[in-house]
């Protein structure tokens, strides 16, 4: 892999090996299927609807979020560097006859150089904690969105609680995720992500936490950002 690409080959291989299971709601990707309606509704509400908008999903994987945004009427481009996951996303779009979604194997930074200020909404969910330089991805997302447009991120906080819940609990006790899915050192504190956003001319507008009850197997959004969290930002209008 080109050394200038902001990606970890081991991370790409990890998700490519599981690619055939992306759309199985009882697979390792069950949490993504379960949280998708929550994050989709939050994005749609803050963005003032998705119908007719140009939307980019950075780190789209097998297309769970990208597909659902297209079904809300958006014109969606999903990008990723995991080849097998993208093929699964493309195949699912064909089988499900999803209109308005396309996929490309391209880095966010490369697309930003190619198509600045192209999108009304940019999403980058559950991806920043898997790349070597998350600030570079944030900057690319800012370049890609139109002035005044929305950019949404979700990731994992870095603290002892998140280590216990997101790694020990989710990967080793509850088996919600395959072991080795996350590396604690790559988790990102909200203050760090806010700093990346400010330097990229993105203004933090809203934040949410995400909680999980292992007994009811239910997720919900709340104000506790100590483990999983989402932020909504807007590009500074010139």
From TrEMBL:
Pathway(s) of this molecule: Cofactor biosynthesis; ubiquinone biosynthesis
Ranges annotated as spanning the membrane: none
Gene Ontology MF terms in the entry: 2-polyprenyl-6-hydroxyphenol methylase activity; 3-demethylubiquinol 3-O-methyltransferase activity
Keywords associated with the record: Methyltransferase, S-adenosyl-L-methionine, Transferase, Ubiquinone biosynthesis
Biological process per Gene Ontology, one example term: methylation
The EC number(s) this enzyme carries: 2.1.1.222, 2.1.1.64
Purpose: O-methyltransferase that catalyzes the 2 O-methylation steps in the ubiquinone biosynthetic pathway.
Protein name: Ubiquinone biosynthesis O-methyltransferase
Encoding gene, per UniProt annotation: ubiG
């Amino acid at each position: 892999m080109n050394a200038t690409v902001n990606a970890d080959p081991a991370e790409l291989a990890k998700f490519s090996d599981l690619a055939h299971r992306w759309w199985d709601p009882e697979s390792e990707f069950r949490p993504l299927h379960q949280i998708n309606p929550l994050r989709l509704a939050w994005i749609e509400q803050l963005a003032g609807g998705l119908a007719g908008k140009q939307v980019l999903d950075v780190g789209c994987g097998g297309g769970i979020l990208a597909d659902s945004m297209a079904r809300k009427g958006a014109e969606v481009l999903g990008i990723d560097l995991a080849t097998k996951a993208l093929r699964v996303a493309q195949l699912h779009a064909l089988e499900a006859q999803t209109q308005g979604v396309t996929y490309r194997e391209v880095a966010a930074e490369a697309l930003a150089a190619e198509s600045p200020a192209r999108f009304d909404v940019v999403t980058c969910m559950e991806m920043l904690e898997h790349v070597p330089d998350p600030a570079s991805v944030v900057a690319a997302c800012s370049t890609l969105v139109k002035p005044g447009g929305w950019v949404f991120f979700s990731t994992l906080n870095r603290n002892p609680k998140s280590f216990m819940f997101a790694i020990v609990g989710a990967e080793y006790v509850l088996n919600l995720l395959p072991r080795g899915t996350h590396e604690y050192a790559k988790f990102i504190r909200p203050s760090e992500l806010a700093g990346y956003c400010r330097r990229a001319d993105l203004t933090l507008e809203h934040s949410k936490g995400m909680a999980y009850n292992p007994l009811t197997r239910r997720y919900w959004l709340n104000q506790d950002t100590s483990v999983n969290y989402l932020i909504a930002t807007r590009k500074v209008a010139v």
